Each structure stands twice: as C-alpha cells, then as structure tokens.
Amino acid sequence: SRLAIQTVDIDGVRKLFGGDSWRVNIRGPSSVSPLVLDHLNGTYEILFLVKLPGIYTVQAVLE
Predict the structure, then answer these.
(1) Cα 12 from chain centroid?
(2) pTM, whole model, 2 decimals?
(3) What domain of life (predicted)?
C-alpha cells in the first residue's frame, strides 16, 4: 500500500524541498513496517504491506 504526504509552509504554500524527518506507526491486525521515501521536492511516500485484512490506523508525525 502507499500513502502520499505533501508538505506546506506556515502560509499553506507547497514546500519544494525535502529533508523532513517523519515517524510513522501503523497499527492493525498484522505487524507492519513502513518505509518513508523522501522525494526531495516537499513530497513523501509511505510504503507498507499488510498481510491480514482488517482496519489499520496510520499515525505520521513530523519530528
């Protein structure tokens, strides 16, 4: 599975550079180890594989 994050500055303008640090937790019926990719343009991608059906919650925290 894949989730996308678009970062913005305090005025809501899209950031055009990366370098932010994200802590991502995914909870649900199976153990999930997410991978966060920094595209270096203000966007980030969270990749993960769930092995069991069910409801999962994602918490992404900018550190």
Answers:
(1) 19
(2) 0.91
(3) Eukaryota
